# Entry
Amino acid sequence: MPTARTETSSRRKSSSRSGAKAASGPNALTLLREDHTEVSEMFEKFEKRKDKMTSTQKQTLVEEICAALTVHAQIEEEIFYPAVRPEIDDEDLMDEAVVEHQSLKELIAKIEDEGPEGEYYDAHVIVLGEYVKHHVKEEQGEMFKKVRATDIDLKELGGRLEQRKMELMGEAEEEE
Ligand SMILES: [Fe+2]
Ligand SMILES: [Fe+2]
# Structure
Protein backbone atom coordinates (compact mmCIF):
# COMPACT_ATOMS: atom_id res chain seq x y z
CA MET A 1 0.00 0.00 0.00
CA PRO A 2 1.46 3.38 -0.90
CA THR A 3 2.33 5.53 2.03
CA ALA A 4 0.82 8.95 2.17
CA ARG A 5 3.31 11.65 1.40
CA THR A 6 3.56 14.29 4.02
CA GLU A 7 3.54 17.83 2.85
CA THR A 8 6.84 19.57 3.26
CA SER A 9 5.71 22.91 1.93
CA SER A 10 5.35 24.54 5.31
CA ARG A 11 8.99 25.44 5.63
CA ARG A 12 9.91 26.97 8.90
CA LYS A 13 12.25 29.86 8.83
CA SER A 14 15.00 30.58 11.31
CA SER A 15 13.93 29.78 14.83
CA SER A 16 12.87 33.27 15.72
CA ARG A 17 11.75 32.80 19.27
CA SER A 18 11.13 35.39 21.93
CA GLY A 19 14.03 37.71 22.40
CA ALA A 20 14.88 37.81 18.72
CA LYS A 21 16.23 41.24 17.93
CA ALA A 22 14.57 43.25 15.21
CA ALA A 23 18.01 44.04 13.85
CA SER A 24 18.55 40.54 12.46
CA GLY A 25 15.35 39.35 10.91
CA PRO A 26 14.67 37.53 7.67
CA ASN A 27 15.14 39.48 4.45
CA ALA A 28 12.06 41.71 4.16
CA LEU A 29 11.41 40.75 0.55
CA THR A 30 11.65 37.05 1.36
CA LEU A 31 9.21 37.43 4.23
CA LEU A 32 6.68 39.28 2.07
CA ARG A 33 7.13 36.87 -0.84
CA GLU A 34 6.47 33.91 1.46
CA ASP A 35 3.26 35.58 2.63
CA HIS A 36 2.23 36.01 -1.02
CA THR A 37 2.89 32.35 -1.77
CA GLU A 38 1.02 31.19 1.30
CA VAL A 39 -2.08 33.20 0.48
CA SER A 40 -2.08 32.26 -3.20
CA GLU A 41 -1.96 28.59 -2.18
CA MET A 42 -5.03 29.18 0.00
CA PHE A 43 -6.86 30.78 -2.93
CA GLU A 44 -5.99 27.79 -5.12
CA LYS A 45 -7.32 25.48 -2.45
CA PHE A 46 -10.55 27.46 -2.35
CA GLU A 47 -11.02 27.32 -6.11
CA LYS A 48 -10.28 23.62 -6.23
CA ARG A 49 -12.45 22.55 -3.31
CA LYS A 50 -15.20 25.15 -3.04
CA ASP A 51 -17.91 22.85 -4.38
CA LYS A 52 -16.95 19.97 -2.09
CA MET A 53 -16.59 21.85 1.17
CA THR A 54 -19.31 22.37 3.73
CA SER A 55 -20.14 25.99 4.32
CA THR A 56 -18.35 25.82 7.68
CA GLN A 57 -15.17 24.48 6.06
CA LYS A 58 -15.45 27.12 3.39
CA GLN A 59 -15.89 29.87 5.92
CA THR A 60 -12.91 28.66 7.94
CA LEU A 61 -10.66 28.73 4.88
CA VAL A 62 -11.93 32.14 3.78
CA GLU A 63 -11.45 33.54 7.28
CA GLU A 64 -7.85 32.30 7.16
CA ILE A 65 -7.34 33.98 3.80
CA CYS A 66 -8.84 37.26 4.99
CA ALA A 67 -6.87 37.23 8.25
CA ALA A 68 -3.58 36.54 6.43
CA LEU A 69 -4.27 39.31 3.90
CA THR A 70 -5.26 41.79 6.58
CA VAL A 71 -2.09 41.24 8.61
CA HIS A 72 0.05 41.31 5.47
CA ALA A 73 -1.50 44.56 4.22
CA GLN A 74 -1.09 46.13 7.62
CA ILE A 75 2.62 45.35 8.00
CA GLU A 76 3.21 46.64 4.49
CA GLU A 77 1.31 49.85 5.18
CA GLU A 78 2.79 50.47 8.62
CA ILE A 79 6.37 49.43 7.97
CA PHE A 80 7.33 48.37 4.45
CA TYR A 81 5.75 51.03 2.27
CA PRO A 82 6.90 53.97 4.44
CA ALA A 83 10.43 52.53 4.49
CA VAL A 84 10.69 52.04 0.72
CA ARG A 85 8.67 55.01 -0.57
CA PRO A 86 11.39 57.63 -0.03
CA GLU A 87 14.07 55.34 -1.46
CA ILE A 88 12.63 54.09 -4.72
CA ASP A 89 11.47 57.35 -6.25
CA ASP A 90 8.22 56.11 -7.78
CA GLU A 91 5.32 57.84 -6.07
CA ASP A 92 2.79 56.53 -8.60
CA LEU A 93 3.71 52.93 -7.94
CA MET A 94 3.46 53.41 -4.17
CA ASP A 95 0.16 55.31 -4.40
CA GLU A 96 -1.33 52.60 -6.59
CA ALA A 97 -0.29 49.94 -4.09
CA VAL A 98 -2.02 51.82 -1.28
CA VAL A 99 -5.20 52.26 -3.34
CA GLU A 100 -5.14 48.56 -4.26
CA HIS A 101 -4.96 47.72 -0.56
CA GLN A 102 -8.06 49.84 -0.01
CA SER A 103 -9.98 47.88 -2.66
CA LEU A 104 -8.79 44.60 -1.16
CA LYS A 105 -9.94 45.65 2.28
CA GLU A 106 -13.36 46.70 1.01
CA LEU A 107 -13.85 43.33 -0.62
CA ILE A 108 -12.62 41.52 2.49
CA ALA A 109 -15.13 43.45 4.61
CA LYS A 110 -17.91 42.52 2.19
CA ILE A 111 -16.95 38.83 2.27
CA GLU A 112 -16.72 38.74 6.06
CA ASP A 113 -20.04 40.50 6.28
CA GLU A 114 -22.03 38.32 3.89
CA GLY A 115 -20.78 34.88 4.98
CA PRO A 116 -20.84 31.67 2.91
CA GLU A 117 -24.60 31.83 2.36
CA GLY A 118 -24.26 35.10 0.49
CA GLU A 119 -25.32 34.92 -3.16
CA TYR A 120 -21.97 36.18 -4.45
CA TYR A 121 -19.74 34.81 -1.71
CA ASP A 122 -17.73 32.43 -3.93
CA ALA A 123 -17.48 35.02 -6.68
CA HIS A 124 -16.27 37.64 -4.22
CA VAL A 125 -13.57 35.30 -2.95
CA ILE A 126 -12.45 34.42 -6.48
CA VAL A 127 -12.35 38.08 -7.49
CA LEU A 128 -10.40 38.88 -4.31
CA GLY A 129 -7.90 36.23 -5.43
CA GLU A 130 -7.61 37.92 -8.82
CA TYR A 131 -7.05 41.34 -7.24
CA VAL A 132 -4.40 39.86 -4.98
CA LYS A 133 -2.67 38.16 -7.91
CA HIS A 134 -2.50 41.44 -9.80
CA HIS A 135 -1.26 43.34 -6.74
CA VAL A 136 1.40 40.74 -5.94
CA LYS A 137 2.61 40.84 -9.53
CA GLU A 138 3.19 44.58 -9.26
CA GLU A 139 4.88 44.29 -5.90
CA GLN A 140 7.21 41.46 -6.82
CA GLY A 141 7.73 42.49 -10.41
CA GLU A 142 8.21 46.24 -9.95
CA MET A 143 8.37 47.41 -6.38
CA PHE A 144 10.67 44.69 -5.02
CA LYS A 145 12.95 45.07 -8.02
CA LYS A 146 13.34 48.77 -7.23
CA VAL A 147 13.85 48.05 -3.54
CA ARG A 148 16.67 45.63 -4.37
CA ALA A 149 18.47 48.46 -6.16
CA THR A 150 18.51 50.63 -3.02
CA ASP A 151 20.76 50.22 0.00
CA ILE A 152 17.88 49.67 2.43
CA ASP A 153 18.90 47.25 5.20
CA LEU A 154 16.51 44.46 4.29
CA LYS A 155 17.34 42.34 7.33
CA GLU A 156 16.60 45.15 9.72
CA LEU A 157 13.39 45.87 7.83
CA GLY A 158 12.51 42.17 7.81
CA GLY A 159 13.04 42.02 11.56
CA ARG A 160 10.55 44.80 12.10
CA LEU A 161 8.03 43.22 9.72
CA GLU A 162 8.33 39.86 11.42
CA GLN A 163 7.91 41.30 14.88
CA ARG A 164 4.80 43.28 13.92
CA LYS A 165 3.35 40.29 12.08
CA MET A 166 3.67 38.16 15.23
CA GLU A 167 1.98 40.86 17.30
CA LEU A 168 -0.92 41.22 14.90
CA MET A 169 -1.40 37.47 14.57
CA GLY A 170 -1.48 37.21 18.36
CA GLU A 171 -4.10 39.95 18.56
CA ALA A 172 -6.23 38.23 15.91
CA GLU A 173 -6.14 34.98 17.89
CA GLU A 174 -7.19 36.74 21.07
CA GLU A 175 -10.19 38.21 19.31
CA GLU A 176 -11.49 34.78 18.27
FE1 LIG B 1 0.59 44.91 -0.83
FE1 LIG C 1 2.35 42.18 -0.48
Summary: Confidence is low (pLDDT under 50) at residues 1-22. The chain is about 75% helix and 0% strand. The radius of gyration is 17 Å.
